[in-house]
Amino acid sequence: MEKLVWSSPTIDMLKDFSSLPYRGSDTSVVNIFLLRRKYKLEVAVHEGVLYRYYHGKSRNRQGYGFPLSVKKPDYEKVFEILRDDAKERGGISFCLCDEDQRAVLSEHFDIDWHSERGDCDYVYESDKWLTFSGKKYYRLRNRMNMFNRLYPETEYYPIDSDKRLQDALYVSHIWQEEHEDKDMPDEDLDEEQKCINDAAKYWKELGMTGGVLYVDGAPIAATMASFLSTDLVDFHFDKAVGRFAAAGATVAARRHFVEAGIAQGRQFFNLEEDMNIPGLRQSKETYRPVYLLSKYYGGES
């Protein structure tokens, strides 16, 4: 039986898996790379399949991720390899599996599955963000209109140069300072900032995209994203700062993202999980997701 050779993920290892037929944010090679420290993530590549193993602090971030491949692999062989590898880990468990992945795994393993609301990805129809038209979007429309009245001379640019990247980093650093001792523990804020710095450092290699919103020439909101699939953009970091955030800068920046064509025609946006943070959940729900992508974890019973 072939043995998997595990290591920390590198961009070179992940480059062949940048276009996969999945929508879950954990299947993004960008997230696999950026979150490698947070979850002490191990990966192995064997015969066109990317294997993952998470060492997170909580049960919903511990175990194997669903094996990823561009084309449907021989699952009998793939799971036989996993079973052999799991013997050295003291048993088999999985995490971050969507409905379809759970169904495939359940055909081969007797898993006691669990799910948590905070793990769900929020998926939206991108064209709705252009105008926020319709009754259910009236709050967002009002926020956008208020921001435009307060700051009529805004400018928005795609992140296509080192200057734009530095401006996006400036926004993220200010945002972190503003949110210390608030929703997220400082260690999580620090780790997120490391991820943002890595995204900027390896921008081209990771295939990142995004934009920066300016008021009077100063950067006040920024988005760092990537193309997760042929029809979906994954929003990794989406920040607005100071009085501009309170006035609706995030709403304005997201509308500009669509208007600027940065999504390149993708139909859906993924704003990822809310991590059970009440304010974040309320914000993501306000944008009216077209569906929540549930994720499951568990071990053999």
Describe this structure in words.
It contains 12 helices and 13 strands. It has helices at residues 11-14, 29-34, 75-87, 99-106, 128-131, 138-150, 162-179, 186-201, 203-206, 242-247, 249-259, 278-286; strands at residues 42-46, 49-55, 62-64, 93-97, 111-115, 121-125, 154-158, 208-215, 218-229, 232-240, 268-270, 291-293, 296-300. The strands form 3 sheets. Strands 7-8-9-10-11-6-12 form a 7-stranded mixed beta sheet, with helices on both faces. Strands 1-2-3 form a 3-stranded antiparallel beta sheet, with no helix packed on it. A 3-stranded antiparallel beta sheet has the order 4-13-5, with helices on one face. The protein is elongated and about 65 Å long. The mean pLDDT is 95.
Strand content: 15-25%
Q: Spell the H/E element sequence.
A: HHEEEHEHEEHHEHHHEEEHHEHEE
Total strand segments: 13
- Percent range of helical residues: 25-40%
Q: Describe the strand arrangement of the main beta sheet, using strand numbers.
A: 7-8-9-10-11-6-12
